[in-house]
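Cross-check.
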Amino acid sequence: MKEIVDKIREGDEKEIARCISLIEKNSENSSHILKEIFPYTGKAIRIGITGPPGVGKSTLIDKLTLLLIEKDKSVGIIALDPVSPFSGGALLGDRIRMSDLNLENKVFIRSMALREGKGVSRFALDAADILDASGKDYIIIETVGIGQSEIEIAYLTDCTILVLSPEAGDGIQAMKAGILETSDLIVINKSDRPGAEELKKDIIFAFNLSGKEAEVILTNSLKSEGISELLEKIEEFIIKAKNLEKFEKRRKEIIKERIKKLIFSKIEEKIMEKISENDFIEKMANYVYNLKFSTHEVANEFIKKFLGG
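Predicted model, tokenized:
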């Protein structure tokens, strides 16, 4: 085990990739690896980047990472992809789109499937620990940009960036979903398109109504415009949080969220094992179909029988 940990800390990409694969498979060895590398985590700044599909998140991450490399920083990127309903694997689109980074040896990119089907995968957070222990200065986690993951990422990273674009009513949808409230920085990408300035005004106005300030940055990632300003705002946010002791408080909240996520995930795994081992659900489904029991009665019976409560 010491040899594995040493290779990870040395930045051995093959060993890092192998260990992340073990994590994705939920291998028994992965928990031992995570335990051993844990003392070497906590140094990297973790950035969550979310927003609706098609706003240019991957291109933005590409340009932001290139700028970090210019500043002699190393970066780990975890791109959460939707699961294929047929193969169960990630679509791996982000690794293809981030083509500028392929030749950079200071960057490690990994696409991971949302195998749990909702929110930010606990396996992605464990993979971030591996990258953290390997010495990466920044770890960027890109969410799918749909559903629970958009809000959840804010409770699992040091700085959360919401990316929008002027078209398709992205701003209005974000306001409805409450995603704006959980974002630390807001990026309006594709800012050369009509409506960018209007969207910025709308967001600032929405924040003013709630008594908060909005940090809104206009970018055009294809032309690398606004990327330097974005990085400056990220660095300012982290420095300010540390000075006000908000950084440490947030890190403790992140730990609490991860513990809860892990507990729920492991309970779910145990329940699924029980379901696969017994024909209880199959039998009960027949009873429900024949109107002998309601679905609520069946669920309560399952809890009594297998969870003892």
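Confidence is low (pLDDT under 50) at residues 83-97. The chain has 14 helices and seven strands. Passed to J.P. for a second look.
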